[in-house]
Amino acid sequence: MSKTLYLMRHGETLFNQLHLIQGWSDSPLTKRGQAQARIAGEYFLKQGIRFDAAYSSTQERASDTLERVVPGLSYQRLKGLKEWNFGRFEAQPEFLNPKPPYGDFFKYAGGESQSEVEERLFETLSELMAVCSERSKVLAVSHGGALTCFTRATGNQLSRGLKNCCILQFHYADGQFTLENVINHDFNPLEEDN
């Protein structure tokens, strides 16, 4: 028997719009980010996907996204789902990022190493999937850097960065995560004012 994890990135934020590095610092969802979350929620509804459990990073941009994807669903906020801590690079212009892989680069700036983020995410998601009943469908909302690290830790590689509200669908069985699908949604700018 298996379980399914829908691992999702938060909607667009003010820092995303301004091209600022956003790790443990936070910024609010933009109108576009709110609309992206609603579009993701519509996807789950159209697919008939109902969640048995839901989790979010403790950061506001992630919990605000989850609340728009599945309004009224109770969920748990977990520190283990937080974004990468970029240390002194927090809230700095994105052009200061080195080329990946980052390795220990951010650890020397007072943040986390790539391996620390991989381990944190893998441990957190493994623990929550292990306690779910068979055939469970689980939603977890996290962050771009953290999701990329987790995907790498599962032995999968993403060909490009994760768009806001991108959904990674993983099959979970016998302690192993297998990436089954990467779901990106087209954003209709006309919905921004709704």
UniProtKB/TrEMBL annotation:
SUPFAM superfamilies: Phosphoglycerate mutase-like
Pfam families membership: His_Phos_1
Listed CDD domains: HP_PGM_like
Gene3D superfamilies referenced in this protein's UniProt entry, alphabetically: Phosphoglycerate mutase-like
Binding site for substrate: 9-16, 61
Cellular component terms (Gene Ontology): cytoplasm
PANTHER family, alphabetized: BROAD-SPECIFICITY PHOSPHATASE YOR283W-RELATED (PTHR48100), HISTIDINE PHOSPHATASE FAMILY PROTEIN (PTHR48100:SF5)
GO MF entries: phosphatase activity
Protein name from the UniProt record: Histidine phosphatase family protein
Superkingdom of origin: Bacteria
